[in-house]
């Protein structure tokens, strides 16, 4: 069993930096379309990630900005990935802690994992990363996919 590190799951085709999406839905659609083109997800991925986010919101309010870690059921993931999206203008997610509260998310990690224990480990490691405002600030400033991946690798995330 290899270590569940972010860098082993973050793959260039599903890294988007400095993006603009008008809504959470549009973001999900784009990720789903790309993951689907790559053959990494089943066709019900979009519907399931939407449904799951509606039931169990994943927005996280940090000190200086918001984040979100949407994920979906293991069985609709064919090839594991963690998509990383940084946004120029935040997109609203509902808070994980209070689903009446909105979080303006600027960095989003979409977890496409099909091993339940890996998903748990990844959530824990992301929670650790989200406490690290210095690295997050660096990720948010990255302007290319390569730059963002390098930051993740350099910090051994």
Automatic annotation (TrEMBL):
<dbReference type="InterPro" id="IPR051541">
    <property type="entry name" value="PTS_SugarTrans_NitroReg"/>
</dbReference>
<feature type="domain" description="PTS EIIA type-2">
    <location>
        <begin position="8"/>
        <end position="155"/>
    </location>
</feature>
<dbReference type="Pfam" id="PF00359">
    <property type="entry name" value="PTS_EIIA_2"/>
</dbReference>
<dbReference type="InterPro" id="IPR002178">
    <property type="entry name" value="PTS_EIIA_type-2_dom"/>
</dbReference>
<protein>
    <recommendedName>
        <fullName>PTS EIIA type-2 domain-containing protein</fullName>
    </recommendedName>
</protein>
<dbReference type="InterPro" id="IPR016152">
    <property type="entry name" value="PTrfase/Anion_transptr"/>
</dbReference>
